[in-house]
Amino acid sequence: MLAGAALAQNTEREVRVGVYQNEPKILLGPNGQASGILGDLLQQMAIQEDWVIKPVVCEWQACLDALAAGDIDLMPDVAYTEQRAQTYNFHKVAALLSWSQIYKRSGVQINTALDLQSKRVAVLSGSIQQTYLENQFLAFGIHGTLVPVSNLQEAFAQVAAGTADAAVANRFYGDRQAAKYQLDPTPILFQPSQLFYATAKGRNADLLEAIDRHLGVWQSQTDSPYFKVLKQWMDVPPRFSVPAYVWWSLGGLGVLLLVAVGVGLHLRREVADQAWHLQSTEARLATILNSVEAYIYIKDTELRYQYANRRVCDLFGMEPEQIVGKTDADFFDAATHAHLRINDLRVIEHGERVEEEETNLSADGSQENTYLSVKLPLYDRNGVIYALCGISTDITKHKQAEEAIHRLAYYDPLTQLPNRRLLMERVQQALTAQRRGSEQGEHGALLFIDVDNFKDLNDTLGHPMGDALLRQMAARLGACTRAEDTLARQGGDEFVVMLQGLSADVDTAAQQTGLVAQKILAQLGEPYALGDHSYRTSVSIGVTLFSGTGMDQDELLKQADLAMYQAKKDGRNLVRFFNPAMQAQISARTALEADLHQALVRNEFVLHYQPQVDSAGQTLGMEALVRWQHPLRGLVAPMQFIPVAETSGLILPLGRWILDAACRQLVAWSQTPATAHWHLSVNVSARQFHQPDFVAQVEQALQQSGARTGLLKLELTESQLVDDVENVILKMQALKAMGVCMSLDDFGTGYSSLSILKRLPLDQLKIDQSFVREMLTSPKDTGIVRAIINVGQSVGLQVIAEGVETEDQRAALIALGCTHFQGYLFGKPQAL
Ligand SMILES: Nc1nc2c(ncn2[C@@H]2O[C@H](COP(=O)(O)O[C@H]3[C@@H](O)[C@H](n4cnc5c(=O)[nH]c(N)nc54)O[C@@H]3COP(=O)(O)O)[C@@H](O)[C@H]2O)c(=O)[nH]1
């Protein structure tokens, strides 16, 4: 059965037919189908040929253009001319015969062409009738006036209004419209023409062939569909094969016919006219409604669809007649239907105009779209609501774009977690809610989570593995927290969790937070599968509690950050709560930073010098160690301000000052023979060394001071040499080429990569004081010191031990082969 239906559908032929308004020949019927004589004939043929006639409503010239362009397949009511035959194909058996006729206002005498003398005749501008009459006027010496008009309605209206005496129209139009304008037909008939269906040249020959076949048979049988259609539309069948010479004698018959039709016909035509106007308006409206992008529909008071435009039909995959009578329950899922129903009832029951964004899910759940919908009540003439009209615009793509922009602004693309911006907004909202008292004294908590030694992973396994780790961590953090908690990626290897709704009692809140933090510590400490590797790591967590008083979101985050640093300091893989002592540290650090800015301007820095000696105790040189002579704090040690100078960037101008001051000191020593050979070691910070123009800065310091290049020794630490090794080596080689010496400070505390060491143009290794301090009591430290000395010797580097405080330490170092020494045993750092 189904297969049969499908087969039947496949044999149907869709024929797009141009329909313009020219009653009774062709028009759009009330059912939206091609109608009129030529339309109905086509419908009859369609039944027999299995055609599906699709009317395409258009104006006459537009129809012809569409036909030529292939946008429609068939055009009725086309008179054959040689010129048209170049663009179109015609069938052979004429479908209708027509002619032009002159119609006049009552009381005007026109019986022959000669009566047109001194008359004003309205005629379609540019028509063949106009050309014909002009020629006739000339030929017969008639002095009449042709009044050009743009359509036949206007022609008849001008006659009725008295601005013309007569009008020319085809007989089909004239017969139906003359009465309406109270015009009479004259006996003047001319230009008979044969009317055909036409196709574009070279196309749809089968249609023309079929039309000829049907017309040929039908026109020979008086009871055929052809004559039934004519009878229905005309009451009088047209004549065929009428010789041209009889046309002029038909006038009398026309007059008689018109008189016979009488007043009854006039009334009937009035009604028909109105119906046509309605149909025409409806057709135009349908064209507009079906062309717009919006979904337009009408539902009755039972919320059953009464009208659906083409977009709605496409959405539901049904034809209008299938949609009519159905409700939203037939098209959408239960929740969508319920929601739509509520809004529809507001319109139907309360006359509200409802404007809303709707997200509708199809009944099978396969399609979800968002619409901006406006629904209005429709009232009948008694002011009673009889339906609602809805207009919906699909804003799904717009919403998706909006969503994408929002995600970019507020979410981290790597982990899909909220980013810092969204986190800060959420913290602010939580604080505001607490201040308003809506959270009833509850506590919240911020947990600042930093991955331990994340840089090592990036350096060893590469950044893609680092990214994979962060993604897996984000997923695990999600599993450790509740949906109402905020989980964010702060940036890099830092995550932040905000807990809300904790106890109003601070101890209980701390306990609750501690449990979550420990859970996170445990979960994130489990092994990760990174490619082929099983990777283990840990995190350090800083926690701060808040209850809406005093703090803003930035301060809170700083507190959690500080507590996290404390966890790192205490050994990593730990949870630390923020406490007031940490706050004091922050304040002290902030104040110190502010003072540091002033210190350079006020020239408050000084250099102290500590001797470096050989095994005989002879001073070979000094190390310059900076101090801050603060007017209130007194002499400030470098360990207190160098780290702050590093993070604030002040180390750069400070480092430059130290270099200049050290070079000036070398020049001062050069004046005295006892000190002229002394070298001076200067500490260089990582940030300072990595400046692109660092080599130039050293060169400038030496040149400006006039110091001997070979006496300046730069102390670099291991950690500042591991990043961007190639560039470091190039820089060191440039310095070396200038004659500057280089010492590797704190050796043994960092990476101590021998392969890198081998490539660095060093002069000296400095054994860190922590090994020297313990070497007499710890065999391990002795072993390290021995190893450093051996390494130095094997690569031809001088080895200096720092932090030498006792004779025993010096003796032990000499026994191990150390040749140079620095420490309180030989002198503390002091001003000169
Ligand atoms: N970038 C720069 N950093 C500098 C500069 N000056 C110092 N620093 C950095 O500060 C660190 C600490 O310096 P300081 O407090 O001056 O301590 C030095 C010595 O006083 C100390 N030392 C020397 N001998 C002994 C000793 O026998 N016992 C003992 N307890 N301490 C001793 O060691 C520090 C020398 O360190 P080093 O640079 O490794 O030789 C300092 O480590 C620098 O990092 C500067 O101008 N610029």
Describe the fold and architecture.
The chain is of the alpha/beta class and 832 residues long. Among the domains are: 108 residues, Beta-Lactamase, CATH 3.30.450; 163 residues, 2-Layer Sandwich (Alpha-Beta Plaits); 227 residues, TIM Barrel (Alpha-Beta Barrel). 46% of the residues lie in helices and 25% in strands. An eight-stranded mixed β-barrel has the order 24-25-27-28-29-30-31-32. Helix 17 packs across helix 18. The chain starts with a helix and ends in a 10-residue tail after the last strand. 34% of the residues are buried. Ligand LFPHGCPZ binds next to strand 25, helix 21 and strand 29. It catalyses: 3',3'-c-di-GMP + H2O = 5'-phosphoguanylyl(3'->5')guanosine + H(+). It holds the Pfam family PAS_4. It comes from Rhodoferax saidenbachensis. One of its GO terms (molecular function) is cyclic-guanylate-specific phosphodiesterase activity. This is Diguanylate cyclase.
